[in-house]
Amino acid sequence: MSGSARSEIFSRLREASRGETEENIQRERLSLGSAPSPMPPTPENCQAFILNVLNNQGSVDCVSNRSEAVKAIAHYLYTHFHNYRLVAGNDPRLAAMPWRDAGVLPRFGSLEAGEPVALSFARLGVVETGAVVTWTSKANPAANNFLPEHHIVLVDKNDLVPTMEQAWERINHALETTGRPRGINFIAGPSSTADIEGELVYGAHGPHRWHVVLLGDIPVDAQNIARAAPKDQS
Amino acid sequence: MNEQHHDQSPPPQRMRVSLFVTCLADLFRPSVAFASIKLLEQAGCEVMVPLQQTCCGQPAYNSGDYEATVPLAQQVIALLETADYVVVPSGSCAGMICHHYPKLLQGEWRDRALKLAAKTFELTVFLKDIARIEPQRNNPPSTLSVTYHDSCAGLREMSIKEQPRQLLRELCGIEINELEQSEVCCGFGGTFCAKMPEISGKMVNDKLDHALATGAKILAGGDLGCLLNIAGRAQRLGQEIEVRHIAELLSGDMDTSPIGEGR
Amino acid sequence: MEQHSDTFLDNASEALKNTGQAERRDKIALFASQIRTAAIDSFEGFDDLRHHVKKIRQHSLDNLDYYLSQFEKEAVHNGNQVHFARDSEEFNSLVLDICQQHDARRIAKGKSIVTEETGLNSFLQSAGLNVMETDLGEYIIQQAGETPSHIVSPALHKSANEIRELFQQKHDLGHRELQKTSDLVAEARNVLREHFLQAEVGVIGANALIAENGYSMLVTNEGNGDLCANLPKVLIICTTIDRVLPRAEDATAMSRLLARSATGQPHSCYTSFYSGPRREGEIDGPLETHFVLLDNERSNILSSDYREILECIRCGACLNHCPIYTSVGGHAYGSAYSGPIGSVLTPLLTSLEQSHLLPNACTSCGRCAEVCPANIPLPDLLRDLRHEEGIKKLSAPRWRYGLKLHSWLARHPSIYQTLTATSIRILHRLGRKRGGFSRLPFTSGWTSQRDFPAPQENTFMQLYKAKMKQNNER
């Protein structure tokens, strides 16, 4: 059934098509260039990213090294859960974190029922949208993105890109070198819905809260923005 | 001869304008056309009215009867294309000439349509942006509370938004008492109002509610279709709001009774 | 109650009687338009973006055979099975076959208007499958046994109270009252979480297909689509053949338009790209993935004068800004697609005979075209459909002949002017006292809602010619 459907559909498409050669089609697409992107709220990447994460109802910690990152995560866990437990994927970068420095007890694997917090290490952060980018692999099982009550995401400052176009440039390069993952996820905030009378509610299906830990040499102004924001946004 | 020169000896620099009266003004509201002539003359134009004009063809066109519209469009083009400027006291009829004739016609007629489109203007746009009418007072007392409905075609096809407001300010000292959602359709839509009366009724009711909520004494607009629709609804509900074409207000013609109020 | 396009006027009449819903629609429309305006005003290059995406869409459609086959090749390379369906029937059967091959009983479904178009849910249910919609809005209307009233916010016609009552009927709530909206959301979340974890098959839609790498793009705020895509062991991605874009960056460029136009957000929470089954070493994700791609007239539309309608990105802005949609709501259109986009698409996907009233549900106000992020000239397409309606003689004869008569008269100025002069004088005399008419022959549509304002005494042409004569005599 599908075979004849396929050939019938394609024959109609060919009739409607301009019948250009592949070369001409590619050339025409190239000539159309790239899309305009919105102006960032401020020119400096870290600041703009933090502002957009906050707009997305996320919260942000700025840390300058991995030890501080662990401490910030510990503080977050204790504030919300009075314990130091979380789930993280089998990401070598996460495994190498000095967890003991702050007594955090990660379980490496995929989130299971009854586990409220998962941690991901983002591949990229997109300044334009305040989104983090992860892809599915054993380093970051999909469940860890979409099932926890709280999703904590580490982003290395060096992985910030200004626009989605630049994000794709980086992603395409990775796909070529390490193969295509089955899922690439741009996440920009906790799960939300406005399906009931247009009222915005967080935690529709996935995380109620979304916390970004930005790691690296963060300009003081950017740190101040993150610090000044209310910690209990979503 | 088809045209009447209003002024026998125009100075050479005067703009020569042909007025396309529109069928609704011709039939229901001649005062709009006379007010337009007065305003154009005040703006220093020499006004001609081609006598063979009837209708721009919108009713047939909007109903999708392109075959019936083509000869009408050609008739209007042939009638008006010799003018220096064509002025229309209606955003939707001006939009018909400027945007829809070129879409409808092909070949040589399309070229002629485009040429006509380039010199055709809605009245308030022409007065404000082209003829640049001098600020002056045309008598209505400036204490009048006036609200304004932005007719859809005028707003979206002819970019009429500030011109009527500026003119009311400069010529009459009137500041518009803006109604909410002034850019939402009043429910006229040509034959729509008769084909889908209940939906149209809801829409015109909303429009009237918004107009009444401003407390304005007068609702003005630039398109007679919308104004007849809103006035008719106000009449039906016994609401006392005067509905008038902007040209009447601008020219100071307040003796004519408002739309639908008899005399 | 199921409504059909051919009874649009009756459906609309019913809808207008429900004043509660009508008021809610008015409020939502105002809100939707305000947030859209705010979102677009804060993005200076929005119009340039519109033009850019329009060019990309045109380019994709111009070469759809090329890009669709490139997509197919890449998707297969990524480990997907790609299926094509000519019509709804084939489409539904393909999906059912896949479910049956896996002995699936439970299906978790993300929002997909395409599956509304094909009636997939009822088809699967009649084969004994338990299909659960997981988008909150879709879940609500599924529980209520209704269809979506809006392509983006399917349950916007329901009040929080109605939803509370619905949950009280359908869920075992015990003593819980679900007073706040967040309680209602949490309730649905709990019920749906169970279903996600048990479902054997996930079905999602796609906002775009990407030719260069064989991924689909899915944009949501809830993340329900991502749960459907990642938890069940089989994933079926359902969309139509016209959704293909050349590159990934084209899809994200489109998403810039989409979120701002749909919900006034600068972007949605989740923008996800999926292609293929669980990779080696991965501990979750589907074991088998399918794309089911529906044609259903799109390949014919592509070579018709209505091609531009395929550039629609399904943001719903034209619905939110259409005064007719916001007056009568989505159900009146009797189609999965309502509002201006629905009034163009429905006749093209079904037949003009069944749905010729829809293109008439338009005042040509142009607001839809003004807000359409894909720059689709919706009023023109609607008028073109009315043109076809006339050719097919589907409109009421009194309208057709009436307009023909009017056009004939308008082409004969002297007859027109004589006739109108006489008629206007009579009308004026009859109406001058009251100022208008509450009834007049041939105007029942007009006078059912408003009076017919009486004309001034004479036509302009009469007065003007008389004045001219005076001037000449002087």
The CATH architecture term of the largest domain in chain C is 3-Layer(aba) Sandwich
Strand order of the largest sheet of chain A: 1-12-7-4-2-3
Domain tally of chain C: 3
Strand content of chain A: 15-25%
**What is the fourth-level CATH superfamily of the largest domain in chain A?**
NagB/RpiA/CoA transferase-like
Count of DSSP strands of chain C: 12
How much of the residues of chain C is beta strand, in percent?
5-15%
What is the CA-atom radius of gyration of chain A, in angstroms?
Answer: 21 Å
> What is the residue-mean pLDDT of chain A, rounded to a whole number?
94
Could you describe the 3D structure shown?
- The complex is a heterotrimer of chains A (234), B (263) and C (474).
- Chain A has 234 residues and is an alpha/beta fold.
- Chain A has two domains: 1-33, no CATH class; 40-228, NagB/RpiA/CoA transferase-like (Rossmann fold, 3-Layer(aba) Sandwich).
- Chain A has eight helices and twelve strands.
- In chain A, strands 1-12-7-4-2-3 form a six-stranded parallel sheet, sandwiched between helices. In chain A, strands 8-5-6-9 form a four-stranded mixed sheet. Chain A has a two-stranded antiparallel ribbon with strand order 10-11.
- In chain A, helix 3 (45-55) packs parallel to helix 8 (220-228).
- The radius of gyration of chain A is 21 Å and the shape is globular.
- Chain B is α/β, with parallel strands linked by helices and 263 residues long.
- Chain B has two domains: 15-130, Rossmann fold, CATH 3.40.50; 146-251.
- In chain B, the strands form two sheets. Chain B has a four-stranded parallel sheet with strand order 2-1-3-4, sandwiched between helices. In chain B, strands 5-6-7 form a three-stranded parallel sheet.
- In chain B, helix 5 (91-104) runs antiparallel to helix 6 and helix 11 (197-213) packs across helix 12.
- The radius of gyration of chain B is 18 Å and the shape is globular.
- The two termini of chain B are 35 Å apart.
- Residues 1-5 and 7-11 of chain B have low confidence and may be disordered.
- Chain C has three domains: 43-296, 3-Layer(aba) Sandwich (Rossmann fold); 309-391, no CATH class; 408-473, no CATH class.
- Chain C has 23 helices and twelve strands.
- Chain C is elongated, with a radius of gyration of 26 Å.
- The termini of chain C are far apart.
- The chains are: A alpha/beta (234), B alpha/beta (263), C alpha/beta (474).
- Chains in contact: A-C, B-C.
- At the A-C interface, helix 1, helix 2, helix 6, helix 7 and strand 9 of A face helix 2, helix 3, helix 4, strand 1 and helix 5 of C.
